[in-house]
Write a structure and sequence with these properties.
Length: 170
Amino acid sequence: MTLLLIAATVAVSLLMLMAWLPEFRAEGALLRRWSKGGGEPRCSETVQSVVEAFIQDFSGTHNLTDGETARIREMKIRPGMMPVTLLLHPQLVRREKRHFVRGRNLTAVFVATGVSALIMPPLAGMAMHNMSLWLLPFLNTAVFFTGLQLLRYTYSDLGLINVLVTGKPD
């Protein structure tokens, strides 16, 4: 039982690390920072080129038309409203007809978050009796909260991108 819980913890931790990898890259951090406080007049050419590259990547991944891509580009004047999470993680959603819906990778993040919540109590109990396992509950807690944050940001951006691309809410 202990080995199964350890293996599950390592598996969901690695999955969550892979899901968050775009956030750790320099360009991802720059895009996130730009959306929190930057604007078009104050941004350098480098920042604008990074934002444009992410928009092009999202557009290419989902085969958006030029008009749909232009609607996303127009959001550069309002960086706080830009769907940054989906630009960083375009593989989390897929396009079905004209709308974006949850993709397989987002389902995997959802499952990993649920698994980490399920195995957290037994691991905490095991760690109380075996001090060599003390890191596992902390790792599960980190996976759980990072998964929740990614899910929250993605679903928020999913509604926004559907309004931007289709011009109307779901």
